[in-house]
Design brief:
By secondary structure, the protein is α/β, with parallel strands linked by helices. Helix content is 47%, strand content 9%. It has two domains: 3-381, 7-stranded beta/alpha barrel, CATH 3.20.110; 403-506, immunoglobulin/albumin-binding domain-like (Up-down Bundle), CATH 1.20.1430. The chain is built from 17 helices and nine strands. Strands 1, 2, 3, 4, 5, 6, 7, 8 and 9 form a nine-stranded mixed sheet that branches. Strand 1 (3-11), helix 1 and strand 2 (56-60) form a beta-alpha-beta unit. The longest helix is centred in the middle third of the chain and has 30 residues, at 302-331. The radius of gyration is 23 Å and the shape is globular. Mean pLDDT is 92; it is low at 219-228.
């Protein structure tokens, strides 16, 4: 029996177009498009060209799709690459006067030229490029809530429903087909969410293995077939009701990539993310070791890193294959191995990551024990045991503290108040006066604002962005409730995103 490996990448960035510059504004999107999305598209195209079997799942959040499809992004990205090219010219005088440093500068010149040609060959349309790969069976694209809203903390189901419906409608608009898979933002699950997904024809989502309720003995009366231990949970998708399945992340695959001490990205030969040359921002150094101060990092060598990528890809493919073989020996079923990661880890944070993904798929294609397949392939192949999920997330401790805590409780007080007012108005709102309010509500509900505050990555940016959208929502709600307002001033509140969405189409029948 052949085992199944399901690789799921989650691609997301909050709405940053026209919302500031380095490091957390518009340039955030530019860097990730350059470091992650373009290299990943190229690696997947090469797999297709070489007839290497294997399919992966890639979630692209609707708010990210909106930005990547924007002509504003396409023009700004080309300008950003021009600036980066000019900066490379100036780097030479700031680098060590060595052959290795000059060669690395030339390496980046070539990479920049190549990425510019790739982007132009795609007419700047990265979403269309991913959609073409889906049509060829290379990837399966998942949708998500419109703005990565963290649904367990929402005040009502109607707000959750609008986020889901807006996400499905955006996928349909840009990908031109119906989505089947769904990425729960932050893997945040609340019992009953599966009903809302089923309403939109969605068939599966991803969660942490710890989210599955397990029992030592089967509970036949409730109809929930238990597993003996939590270690068994991730080896199959589970039917959690409403015709919706959940795939559970295998913690061993996560640790091998995410762990600070054991993960591949921390290897000393890989490019150091945190040290950048003054002015241009290009990264010329390697990690060297975890104990090495940033100022003492050694120069990066792409050839050495490329060799290590091959070794790590072979190691990972061998590891998951061995896990599958061992599982079959124990149970007679090789099971399903799910590996789920943020897409932006590969390329942006781990520069060599896209090549590693391709290497893993090439190695798996050479074995008969384990195949890389899409989640829908698994669902078509096997009956699913019935299970039940507990309220959970992939945040610290599996709870909601990453998004709701003493530093962010005020955000949720405001969101809940706005949600209640919006839902009360909803039956009488028309698209004429409700579309703009809908867009700003969706943007206010983004999980990124409390996340940036909690983690300290960009505390002031997260606060200012939330308050910006909250002020717009407050003014639009007041206008909808009949308070006097200036229509010209109201029009200036609008953010140019989700312009294809209309409240009349999303409202519950």
């Amino acid at each position: 029996m052949n085992g199944r490996f399901v690789l799921v990448l989650h691609s997301h960035l909050p709405y940053v177009l026209g919302k500031g510059r380095w490091p957390f504004g518009e340039e955030w999107l530019d860097e990730i498009a350059f470091d992650t999305y373009l290299p990943l598209l190229e690696e997947l195209d090469h797999l297709d060209r070489d007839n290497i079997p294997g399919t992966i799942a890639i979630g692209i959040t609707p708010i990210l799709m909106e930005q990547l499809k924007s002509p504003v992004f396409m023009d700004a990205f080309r300008s950003w690459m021009d600036v980066k090219r000019d900066a490379l010219e100036k780097d030479v005088s700031n680098l060590p006067a060595t052959t290795e440093a000059r060669a690395l500068n030339e390496f980046y010149h070539e990479e920049l030229r190549h990425r510019r040609e790739q982007f132009d060959a795609l007419d700047g349309d990265l979403v269309k490029a991913f959609a073409r790969l889906q049509e060829r069976g290379r990837i399966e694209i998942l949708t998500s809530t419109a703005t990565h809203g963290y649904m367990p903390l929402f005040s009502n189901d109607e707000s959750r429903r609008l986020q889901i419906r807006a996400g499905v409608a955006t996928y349909r608009h840009w990908v031109e087909r119906e989505p089947v898979g769904f990425w729960l933002p932050e893997c945040g699950y609340l019992p009953g969410i599966e009903r809302l997904l089923a309403e939109q024809g969605l068939k599966y989502f991803i969660a942490d293995a710890a989210a599955l309720e397990t029992r030592e003995t089967p509970d036949y009366a409730s109809g929930h077939h238990a597993v003996s231990t939590s270690a068994d949970a991730p080896w199959t998708p589970w039917n959690i009701g409403s015709g919706v399945a959940v795939f559970l992340r295998n913690h061993l695959t996560s640790e091998q990539v995410w762990s600070r001490d054991l993960g591949y990205p921390g290897d000393g030969v890989y490019r150091e993310f945190h040290r950048r040359i003054d002015g241009s921002g290009w990264q010329y150094w390697r990690i060297t070791s975890k104990q090495t101060d940033l100022g003492a990092k050694q120069l990066y060598d792409p050839d050495v890193a490329r060799k290590r990528v091959s070794e790590h890809a072979m190691h990972f493919a061998s590891m998951v294959t061995d896990l599958s073989v061992q599982r079959e020996r124990l149970t007679g079923d090789p099971g399903i191995i799910v590996a789920a990661y943020d897409t932006e880890l590969f390329g942006h944070w781990w520069y060599e990551g896209p090549a590693w993904i391709a290497g893993v798929l090439r190695n798996l294609a050479a074995t008969t024990s384990l195949s890389a397949v899409a989640p829908t392939t698994v669902l078509s192949e096997r009956p699913l045991p019935v299970g039940r999920l507990r309220e959970s997330s992939w945040g610290t401790g599996g709870g909601h503290d990453t998004w709701m805590n003493s530093e962010t409780a005020w955000i949720w007080d405001m969101i809940h108040s706005d949600q209640r007012r919006f839902i009360k108005l909803l039956p009488n709102l028309t698209s004429m006066d409700g579309d703009m309010l809908l867009r700003e509500m969706l943007l206010e509900e983004s999980s990124d604002w409390p996340f940036l505050i909690t983690t300290g990555q960009a505390r002031s940016y997260g606060m200012s962005r939330f308050l910006e959208h909250h002020r717009k929502v407050r003014d639009l709600l007041a206008a909808a409730e009949g308070e006097p307002h200036n229509s010209h001033e109201m029009a200036q509140l609008d953010d140019p995103v989700f312009e294809h969405l209309h409240l009349d189409d999303l409202r519950r029948p």
